[in-house]
Amino acid sequence: MRAGCLARPLLCKNSTVGVAIGMMIAVSGCSRDYSGAVAAINGNNIQRLANFYADYQAGRTGQGPKSEADLKRFIESQSPETLQRMGLDPNNRDSVWTSERDHKPLKVRYGVDSPFGAVAAIVFEQDGVAGKRQVGFNNTKVEEADESRYKELWEGRGVAKPQPAPGVTDAGTKK
């Protein structure tokens, strides 16, 4: 069920960015280079790992990998070119499992079912920075969460918050 285009593993059916890139690729027949767009949705390891997870789901009607071994096999199946476009060293694929911020292994919620493009929190930092931990969703989004929000997301009870408008803080006030 996988397309022959190198950018395909990075797309998430339920993301606006993914849909936009997917449409560009479909129209162009994969002949153009969308490295910049691919890099933009893969800025750090939590995004990369969440995007691998989302692509795994996309090829399996929304069902996430059952285990770390399943997700690792999926990542191992990616071409070196795909990994490079994502900003990941093909010779060090295991680096994707570590947060650049707290330098600890990322936690993953396995077996998450997201039918019909449902958004779910799937990848989590262990400690984070300054009391905030990043959480990666299966729609290219990453959110910084305090302890209570993190717990809610880890338990599968929350959804991604909408991104604030440019120049507006999370509390809704102008910067």
What are the defining features of this structure?
175 residues, alpha+beta, four-stranded antiparallel beta sheet, 9% strand, disordered N terminus
Q: Can you lay out the helices and strands and say which pair or pack?
A:
Elements: H1 16-28, H2 35-40, H3 45-58, H4 68-76, H5 80-85, E1 107-108, E2 121-124, E3 133-137, E4 142-145, H6 147-154
Antiparallel strand pairs: 1-2, 2-3, 3-4
Which consecutive residue ranges, at least 5 long each, have pLDDT under 50?
1-31
Give the termini separation. 45 Å
Strand content: 5-15%
Count of DSSP strands: 4
Q: Strands of the largest sheet, in order across it? A: 1-2-3-4
List SSEs in N-to-C order.
HHHHHEEEEH
Largest sheet: 4 strands, antiparallel
Question: How would you sum up this structure, described in words?
Answer:
This protein has six helices and four strands; from the N terminus they run αααααββββα. The chain is α+β, with helices and mostly antiparallel strands. The protein has one domain. The protein has a four-stranded antiparallel β-sheet with strand order 1-2-3-4. β2 and β3 form a beta hairpin.
In short:
The chain is an alpha+beta fold and 175 residues long.
